[in-house]
Amino acid sequence: MVDEENDVALSARARAGSLLNKLERIYLGVIRAIALVAATLLVVYAAWLAISGVYKASLDVETVKEVPASVSPEEVTKIDTTRPANSDAAENSDPFADEKRYYADFTKRYLALFSSKFEAFKRPEDKRLDAEAFDARYVNSSERLESIRDGSLDYAVDKADLESWLDTLTTVASSKSTVDRLKAYQSAKMTKVSRTIKGTREQRYCSYYAYYFDECLTYDTRTVPFTRTVDETKLPDGVMSHTDLLGAYQDRYFDLLLERRRANAGSANMQRAEIAADNQDGSTRLWMAVRVVGVFVVLMFLFLLIALERHQRRISASLRADSAETAA
């Protein structure tokens, strides 16, 4: 009876041990599978970090070039003819002999284009612009040379801008909108308008009059207001003279050019900043890849330990089976 009870107890312990061994094998198998999946994902992630990191770190901000600004002839003709013309010449320049010769030659070519395309539509009372007056109004060579001398103007950039402007104006001068505006000016009838001018003037007066002598002994001055009406003639609204039209075109061209040059410079600076940020991010990714590889090595070590444990258990089970057979 006692032997039967012992056999039952031994059988129960054997079944429990076998169940535990099966659970342990399943558990170790699950851990092994998880380790393999995690290790594979880490390898892929580390490879992606390394590749993207190397790419971003290899980007060079010097490869970003500022896009050249340009203005089309159609954009130059889009001016507001109702606003007062701004005839102030641009202030730019450089001081060497070559630069002086260039500005003189440019003014000559610019004046020739103006004479053939704009001055042909002047009114009888308009004075013809000579080379000196034309230079002072539209080119201002002397101030350009001074600006180059003090370093505030880049001659190469200014030269390229002027040549681009002359090429654009050649197209603009022959456009229908320009010809229509010049013809409208040539045939326009001047209208008389009265304008009131307000101001102040100095007036001399007697500050001390001696009645005993019946004469003024001391004189002084004072500021007094005045108004006067001036009659003048003007062009109809929307009509500009040939000289003002050229000035308006020139102002618009260089205003648009400067605006776009600033926009292009801002865009280039933004791209350089993005590349610099990518360089930093690339370095961070490379370090992250190194860390991920470290985690991968740890997981592989864990996987190795699990494999060794499973191997040890198989060896132990084999030895126990051999011992049991020998004992039998």
TrEMBL record:
Residues 73-93 are annotated as: Disordered. It comes from the Bacteria. The chain crosses the membrane at residues 26-51, 286-308. Keywords: Membrane, Transmembrane, Transmembrane helix. This is Uncharacterized protein. It comes from Allosphingosinicella humi.
